[in-house]
Specification:
Length: about 350
Protein backbone atom coordinates (compact mmCIF):
# COMPACT_ATOMS: atom_id res chain seq x y z
CA UNK A 1 0.00 0.00 0.00
CA UNK A 2 1.30 3.45 -0.95
CA UNK A 3 0.48 6.35 1.37
CA UNK A 4 1.48 10.00 1.01
CA UNK A 5 1.44 12.49 3.86
CA UNK A 6 1.41 16.20 3.09
CA UNK A 7 2.93 18.11 5.99
CA UNK A 8 5.56 17.09 8.57
CA UNK A 9 3.96 18.81 11.55
CA UNK A 10 2.68 16.97 14.64
CA UNK A 11 -0.34 15.47 12.86
CA UNK A 12 1.63 14.29 9.84
CA UNK A 13 4.44 12.84 11.95
CA UNK A 14 1.99 11.09 14.30
CA UNK A 15 0.29 9.57 11.26
CA UNK A 16 3.62 8.40 9.82
CA UNK A 17 4.74 6.81 13.09
CA UNK A 18 1.47 4.91 13.45
CA UNK A 19 1.67 3.68 9.85
CA UNK A 20 5.22 2.46 10.48
CA UNK A 21 4.03 0.53 13.52
CA UNK A 22 1.64 -1.24 11.16
CA UNK A 23 4.26 -2.02 8.53
CA UNK A 24 3.47 0.83 6.12
CA UNK A 25 6.23 3.31 5.26
CA UNK A 26 4.71 6.50 3.83
CA UNK A 27 6.20 9.18 1.62
CA UNK A 28 6.12 12.47 3.52
CA UNK A 29 6.12 15.80 1.69
CA UNK A 30 7.13 18.98 3.51
CA UNK A 31 7.31 22.42 1.87
CA UNK A 32 9.97 23.67 4.33
CA UNK A 33 13.59 22.53 4.41
CA UNK A 34 13.23 20.84 7.81
CA UNK A 35 10.57 19.85 10.33
CA UNK A 36 9.10 22.49 12.60
CA UNK A 37 8.05 26.07 11.97
CA UNK A 38 10.85 28.60 11.71
CA UNK A 39 9.35 30.64 14.57
CA UNK A 40 9.52 28.85 17.95
CA UNK A 41 6.26 28.71 19.90
CA UNK A 42 4.90 27.42 23.17
CA UNK A 43 1.67 25.46 22.93
CA UNK A 44 -0.61 24.36 25.76
CA UNK A 45 -2.09 20.96 26.45
CA UNK A 46 -4.84 22.28 28.70
CA UNK A 47 -6.40 19.58 30.85
CA UNK A 48 -9.68 21.47 31.14
CA UNK A 49 -10.12 21.28 27.35
CA UNK A 50 -8.87 17.71 27.06
CA UNK A 51 -11.21 15.87 29.40
CA UNK A 52 -12.13 13.09 30.01
CA UNK A 53 -8.41 12.11 29.85
CA UNK A 54 -6.88 13.23 33.15
CA UNK A 55 -3.38 13.46 31.71
CA UNK A 56 -3.09 14.12 27.99
CA UNK A 57 0.58 13.11 27.80
CA UNK A 58 -0.17 9.78 29.44
CA UNK A 59 -3.21 9.28 27.21
CA UNK A 60 -1.17 9.92 24.05
CA UNK A 61 1.51 7.50 25.23
CA UNK A 62 -0.83 4.72 26.32
CA UNK A 63 -3.39 4.93 23.50
CA UNK A 64 -1.34 6.19 20.56
CA UNK A 65 2.26 5.23 21.48
CA UNK A 66 3.25 8.89 21.18
CA UNK A 67 5.85 9.86 23.76
CA UNK A 68 7.64 13.20 24.03
CA UNK A 69 8.97 15.49 26.72
CA UNK A 70 7.08 18.71 27.47
CA UNK A 71 8.77 21.94 28.49
CA UNK A 72 7.08 21.74 31.88
CA UNK A 73 3.84 20.82 33.64
CA UNK A 74 1.35 23.68 33.68
CA UNK A 75 0.87 24.54 37.36
CA UNK A 76 -0.52 28.06 37.30
CA UNK A 77 -2.68 30.20 35.01
CA UNK A 78 -3.08 33.92 35.69
CA UNK A 79 -6.04 35.59 33.97
CA UNK A 80 -5.87 39.35 33.62
CA UNK A 81 -8.94 41.26 32.50
CA UNK A 82 -9.99 44.90 32.30
CA UNK A 83 -10.00 45.37 36.08
CA UNK A 84 -9.18 41.99 37.58
CA UNK A 85 -6.40 39.50 38.00
CA UNK A 86 -7.26 35.96 39.05
CA UNK A 87 -5.00 32.95 39.53
CA UNK A 88 -5.72 29.25 39.23
CA UNK A 89 -3.28 26.59 40.46
CA UNK A 90 -3.20 22.84 40.11
CA UNK A 91 -2.33 20.08 37.64
CA UNK A 92 -3.62 22.09 34.70
CA UNK A 93 -1.81 20.43 31.79
CA UNK A 94 1.52 20.86 30.04
CA UNK A 95 3.52 23.38 28.05
CA UNK A 96 5.05 22.03 24.84
CA UNK A 97 7.56 23.63 22.51
CA UNK A 98 6.87 23.89 18.79
CA UNK A 99 9.48 24.75 16.18
CA UNK A 100 12.94 23.53 15.20
CA UNK A 101 14.79 23.21 18.51
CA UNK A 102 15.77 19.83 19.92
CA UNK A 103 13.01 20.23 22.54
CA UNK A 104 10.24 20.86 20.03
CA UNK A 105 7.62 18.18 19.61
CA UNK A 106 8.23 18.06 15.85
CA UNK A 107 11.94 17.27 16.30
CA UNK A 108 11.24 14.78 19.07
CA UNK A 109 8.78 12.87 16.86
CA UNK A 110 11.02 13.19 13.80
CA UNK A 111 13.86 11.44 15.64
CA UNK A 112 11.64 8.36 16.02
CA UNK A 113 10.75 8.25 12.33
CA UNK A 114 12.22 5.73 9.89
CA UNK A 115 10.41 6.94 6.75
CA UNK A 116 12.07 9.60 4.63
CA UNK A 117 10.77 13.15 4.26
CA UNK A 118 10.88 14.94 0.91
CA UNK A 119 11.75 18.49 1.96
CA UNK A 120 11.36 21.70 -0.04
CA UNK A 121 8.44 20.25 -1.99
CA UNK A 122 5.08 21.99 -2.36
CA UNK A 123 3.07 18.82 -2.97
CA UNK A 124 -0.36 18.96 -4.61
CA UNK A 125 -2.67 16.64 -2.71
CA UNK A 126 -4.95 16.11 -5.73
CA UNK A 127 -2.07 14.95 -7.90
CA UNK A 128 -0.84 12.65 -5.15
CA UNK A 129 -4.35 11.20 -4.78
CA UNK A 130 -4.03 9.85 -8.32
CA UNK A 131 -0.65 8.26 -7.58
CA UNK A 132 -1.13 6.83 -4.07
CA UNK A 133 -3.70 4.58 -2.42
CA UNK A 134 -4.25 7.23 0.28
CA UNK A 135 -3.20 10.81 0.92
CA UNK A 136 -3.25 12.35 4.40
CA UNK A 137 -3.28 16.16 4.37
CA UNK A 138 -1.82 17.62 7.57
CA UNK A 139 -0.57 21.00 6.40
CA UNK A 140 -1.68 22.98 9.43
CA UNK A 141 -4.11 25.17 7.48
CA UNK A 142 -7.52 25.09 5.82
CA UNK A 143 -6.40 25.35 2.18
CA UNK A 144 -7.08 21.75 1.17
CA UNK A 145 -10.46 21.64 2.93
CA UNK A 146 -11.39 24.93 1.28
CA UNK A 147 -10.35 23.67 -2.14
CA UNK A 148 -12.48 20.57 -1.58
CA UNK A 149 -15.47 22.75 -0.68
CA UNK A 150 -15.64 21.43 2.89
CA UNK A 151 -14.49 24.45 4.90
CA UNK A 152 -16.52 26.94 6.94
CA UNK A 153 -14.50 29.66 8.70
CA UNK A 154 -15.50 30.35 12.31
CA UNK A 155 -12.69 32.66 13.39
CA UNK A 156 -10.31 34.77 11.36
CA UNK A 157 -7.67 36.71 13.27
CA UNK A 158 -4.29 38.36 13.00
CA UNK A 159 -1.54 37.25 15.36
CA UNK A 160 1.40 39.36 16.41
CA UNK A 161 3.96 37.88 18.72
CA UNK A 162 7.49 38.14 20.05
CA UNK A 163 10.15 36.03 21.69
CA UNK A 164 11.08 37.97 24.81
CA UNK A 165 13.75 37.83 27.50
CA UNK A 166 13.19 38.38 31.22
CA UNK A 167 12.62 36.44 34.42
CA UNK A 168 9.80 33.93 34.14
CA UNK A 169 8.32 31.07 36.14
CA UNK A 170 8.29 27.80 34.15
CA UNK A 171 4.85 26.22 34.23
CA UNK A 172 3.07 29.55 34.74
CA UNK A 173 1.02 31.14 31.95
CA UNK A 174 -0.63 34.56 31.87
CA UNK A 175 -3.68 35.17 29.67
CA UNK A 176 -4.94 38.69 28.96
CA UNK A 177 -8.55 39.51 28.05
CA UNK A 178 -9.37 43.10 27.13
CA UNK A 179 -11.55 44.09 24.20
CA UNK A 180 -9.76 47.44 23.89
CA UNK A 181 -6.62 45.86 22.45
CA UNK A 182 -7.59 42.24 21.74
CA UNK A 183 -11.22 42.69 20.65
CA UNK A 184 -12.61 39.25 21.50
CA UNK A 185 -9.24 37.58 21.23
CA UNK A 186 -6.57 37.39 23.91
CA UNK A 187 -2.96 37.96 24.76
CA UNK A 188 -0.72 35.39 26.38
CA UNK A 189 2.71 35.03 27.96
CA UNK A 190 4.12 31.49 27.98
CA UNK A 191 7.66 30.68 29.14
CA UNK A 192 10.08 28.40 27.33
CA UNK A 193 12.26 28.50 30.44
CA UNK A 194 13.28 30.90 33.20
CA UNK A 195 14.83 33.39 30.78
CA UNK A 196 12.79 33.25 27.57
CA UNK A 197 9.08 33.39 26.78
CA UNK A 198 6.54 33.76 23.99
CA UNK A 199 4.38 36.90 24.12
CA UNK A 200 1.43 36.77 21.74
CA UNK A 201 -1.68 38.76 20.84
CA UNK A 202 -4.57 37.23 18.88
CA UNK A 203 -6.86 39.90 17.35
CA UNK A 204 -10.03 38.59 15.63
CA UNK A 205 -11.12 40.51 12.56
CA UNK A 206 -7.87 42.48 12.34
CA UNK A 207 -5.36 42.64 9.50
CA UNK A 208 -1.68 43.44 9.18
CA UNK A 209 -2.26 47.20 8.99
CA UNK A 210 -3.90 47.21 12.43
CA UNK A 211 -1.54 44.83 14.24
CA UNK A 212 1.05 47.30 15.50
CA UNK A 213 -1.57 49.64 16.94
CA UNK A 214 -3.19 46.81 18.90
CA UNK A 215 0.19 45.44 19.97
CA UNK A 216 1.48 48.77 21.23
CA UNK A 217 -1.73 49.36 23.17
CA UNK A 218 -1.52 45.84 24.63
CA UNK A 219 2.07 46.17 25.87
CA UNK A 220 1.48 49.72 27.13
CA UNK A 221 -1.78 49.03 28.98
CA UNK A 222 -0.46 45.83 30.56
CA UNK A 223 2.89 47.49 31.38
CA UNK A 224 4.86 44.81 29.57
CA UNK A 225 8.43 45.99 29.21
CA UNK A 226 10.53 43.02 28.11
CA UNK A 227 13.50 42.71 25.81
CA UNK A 228 12.32 41.57 22.38
CA UNK A 229 14.71 39.38 20.40
CA UNK A 230 12.38 38.30 17.57
CA UNK A 231 8.90 39.28 16.33
CA UNK A 232 6.44 37.63 13.97
CA UNK A 233 3.02 38.21 12.43
CA UNK A 234 0.64 35.82 10.76
CA UNK A 235 -2.96 35.38 9.68
CA UNK A 236 -4.87 32.75 11.61
CA UNK A 237 -8.09 30.95 10.75
CA UNK A 238 -10.10 28.22 12.45
CA UNK A 239 -13.29 26.58 11.31
CA UNK A 240 -15.15 23.38 10.62
CA UNK A 241 -15.10 20.84 7.82
CA UNK A 242 -18.30 19.13 6.76
CA UNK A 243 -16.28 15.94 6.18
CA UNK A 244 -12.79 14.73 7.02
CA UNK A 245 -12.41 12.28 4.15
CA UNK A 246 -13.12 12.61 0.43
CA UNK A 247 -12.43 9.42 -1.52
CA UNK A 248 -8.81 8.52 -0.68
CA UNK A 249 -7.95 11.94 0.81
CA UNK A 250 -7.98 12.22 4.62
CA UNK A 251 -7.71 15.56 6.45
CA UNK A 252 -5.91 15.66 9.80
CA UNK A 253 -5.09 18.34 12.37
CA UNK A 254 -5.97 21.91 11.43
CA UNK A 255 -6.57 20.75 7.85
CA UNK A 256 -9.45 18.65 9.20
CA UNK A 257 -10.94 21.50 11.26
CA UNK A 258 -9.76 20.12 14.61
CA UNK A 259 -8.48 23.40 16.11
CA UNK A 260 -10.88 25.01 18.55
CA UNK A 261 -12.05 28.55 17.80
CA UNK A 262 -12.09 29.64 21.45
CA UNK A 263 -8.43 29.56 22.55
CA UNK A 264 -6.92 28.09 19.40
CA UNK A 265 -5.85 24.82 21.06
CA UNK A 266 -5.22 22.05 18.57
CA UNK A 267 -2.12 20.00 19.38
CA UNK A 268 -3.88 17.11 21.12
CA UNK A 269 -6.44 16.83 18.30
CA UNK A 270 -3.74 17.07 15.63
CA UNK A 271 -1.78 14.19 17.15
CA UNK A 272 -4.92 12.13 17.73
CA UNK A 273 -6.34 12.67 14.24
CA UNK A 274 -2.98 11.79 12.68
CA UNK A 275 -2.93 8.44 14.46
CA UNK A 276 -6.60 7.80 13.67
CA UNK A 277 -5.98 8.52 9.97
CA UNK A 278 -3.23 5.89 9.97
CA UNK A 279 -5.47 3.35 11.68
CA UNK A 280 -8.30 4.01 9.25
CA UNK A 281 -5.95 3.43 6.33
CA UNK A 282 -4.19 0.36 7.72
CA UNK A 283 -7.28 -1.38 9.12
CA UNK A 284 -9.96 -0.19 6.67
CA UNK A 285 -11.84 1.61 9.44
CA UNK A 286 -14.22 4.56 8.98
CA UNK A 287 -12.19 7.74 9.51
CA UNK A 288 -15.33 9.87 9.84
CA UNK A 289 -16.53 7.76 12.76
CA UNK A 290 -13.10 7.59 14.37
CA UNK A 291 -12.75 11.38 14.37
CA UNK A 292 -16.38 12.23 15.16
CA UNK A 293 -15.64 12.88 18.88
CA UNK A 294 -12.82 15.29 17.96
CA UNK A 295 -14.98 17.05 15.39
CA UNK A 296 -17.97 17.26 17.73
CA UNK A 297 -15.79 18.74 20.43
CA UNK A 298 -14.52 21.42 18.08
CA UNK A 299 -18.02 22.11 16.85
CA UNK A 300 -19.40 22.53 20.38
CA UNK A 301 -16.64 24.95 21.34
CA UNK A 302 -17.97 27.29 18.70
CA UNK A 303 -20.84 27.91 21.11
CA UNK A 304 -18.37 29.28 23.66
CA UNK A 305 -16.79 31.49 21.02
CA UNK A 306 -20.22 32.74 19.91
CA UNK A 307 -21.22 33.69 23.46
CA UNK A 308 -17.82 35.18 24.28
CA UNK A 309 -18.09 37.42 21.22
CA UNK A 310 -21.11 39.14 22.80
CA UNK A 311 -19.36 40.09 26.06
CA UNK A 312 -17.92 43.46 26.93
CA UNK A 313 -15.08 44.05 29.36
CA UNK A 314 -17.38 44.29 32.39
CA UNK A 315 -19.02 40.96 31.55
CA UNK A 316 -15.63 39.31 30.98
CA UNK A 317 -14.52 40.65 34.39
CA UNK A 318 -17.55 39.09 36.05
CA UNK A 319 -17.05 35.82 34.16
CA UNK A 320 -13.42 35.47 35.23
CA UNK A 321 -14.34 36.40 38.79
CA UNK A 322 -17.08 33.77 38.83
CA UNK A 323 -15.00 30.89 37.48
CA UNK A 324 -12.18 31.60 39.97
CA UNK A 325 -14.28 31.72 43.15
CA UNK A 326 -12.90 29.12 45.61
CA UNK A 327 -15.70 26.55 45.44
CA UNK A 328 -16.32 26.90 41.72
CA UNK A 329 -12.59 26.96 40.98
CA UNK A 330 -12.13 23.61 42.74
CA UNK A 331 -14.86 21.97 40.64
CA UNK A 332 -13.71 23.45 37.33
CA UNK A 333 -9.95 23.06 37.57
CA UNK A 334 -9.22 20.36 40.14
CA UNK A 335 -11.73 17.66 39.21
CA UNK A 336 -12.07 15.68 36.01
CA UNK A 337 -15.64 16.71 35.24
CA UNK A 338 -16.11 17.60 31.58
CA UNK A 339 -17.14 21.16 32.39
CA UNK A 340 -16.42 22.45 28.89
CA UNK A 341 -18.43 19.67 27.30
CA UNK A 342 -21.39 20.23 29.61
CA UNK A 343 -21.30 23.99 29.09
CA UNK A 344 -21.02 23.66 25.31
CA UNK A 345 -23.96 21.24 25.22
CA UNK A 346 -26.03 23.66 27.27
CA UNK A 347 -25.16 26.62 25.05
CA UNK A 348 -25.89 24.60 21.92
CA UNK A 349 -29.48 23.85 22.95
CA UNK A 350 -32.01 25.84 20.90
CA UNK A 351 -33.84 28.62 22.75
Amino acid sequence: MRVAIVGAGPGGLACALELERRGIYPDIFERSNRVGHLIPRVETLLQLFGRPPKNQLRYLAENYALEFQPLSPLRRVVMRTYRRSATVKGNLGFLVERGQSEQSIEVQLFRKLRSGIKFDLEADFRTLAGEYNFVVVAEGNELAASELGLWETKLNAWIKGAIVLGRFTPGSVTIYFNTEYARHGFGSLKPFNRDRALLKLVIPGADRSQANEHWNYFTSLEKINLEVIETFEMNYSTGLTSRRQVDNILLAGASGGFTDSFLGLGLFAALSSGVLAARAIAEGWDYEKLTAPLSNRTSRLIALRRIFNTLGNKEIDRLVHGITLPGIRQVIYNTNLDIIGMLCSLLDKPG
